[in-house]
Write a structure and sequence with these properties.
2 domains, 25% strand, two-stranded antiparallel sheet, GTP-binding, GTP Cyclohydrolase I, Chain A, domain 1, GTP Cyclohydrolase I, domain 2
């Protein structure tokens, strides 16, 4: 997806006018350009090199990166949702750099969407790239569309999960993953 800077700037100006603001006042004068640059920045972070390592092929235990800070945008109200992601996989001859798990989460998060879809996209991408025995993804997010509008109830977390392969078929593996992501929170 290519970001169209001029369309974003026009849209933000129209939005500001639509809510009764003066887009030429001092605090808002540069806002259309700032928003356009922000979306260009998001777009640049979606592409990354997903480097795989096959020399560690004998490792076949769970790899988990938990408490990944994540920010996204609700496609229904264009308000942020944010929280933690927990991502695990069990290698089957191939591993990736740990930072690639974080980059995967962030790359998929930086666009308007639903949390449920985001959770599945991350899991499906990792299954495709790593061809592991299984993948588990859990997102725990607060949605500002619920915290600051609608029911106006801040502090609630929405939890979604996507389990693939052995995490879905083997209850012991699933329980180990869930126990590990809870560790340190009790």
């Amino acid at each position: 997806m290519a970001v169209d800077r001029e369309k974003i700037k026009q849209a933000v100006r129209l939005f500001l006018e639509g809510i009764g603001e003066d887009p030429n006042r001092e605090g808002l004068k540069e806002t259309p350009d700032r928003v356009a640059r922000m979306w260009e920045e998001f777009d640049s972070m979606r592409e990354f090199d997903f480097k795989l390592f096959e020399e560690f092929g004998s490792y076949n235990e769970m790899v988990l990166v938990k408490d990944i800070n994540i920010y996204s945008i609700c496609e229904h109200h264009l308000l942020p949702f944010f929280g933690k992601a927990h991502v695990a996989y069990i290698p089957d001859g191939i591993v990736c750099g740990l930072s690639k798990l974080v980059r995967t989460v962030r790359a998929f998060a930086l666009r308007p969407q639903l949390q449920e879809k985001l959770t599945n996209e991350i899991a499906d991408f990792l299954m495709e790239q790593l061809k592991p025995k299984g993948v588990a993804v859990v997102l725990e997010m607060e949605h500002l569309c619920m915290s600051m509008r609608g029911v106006i109830s801040p502090g609630h977390l929405t939890t979604t999960s996507a389990l693939r392969g052995i995490f879905l078929s083997d209850i012991r593996t699933r329980e180990e993953f869930l126990k590990l992501i809870k560790r340190g929170r009790e």
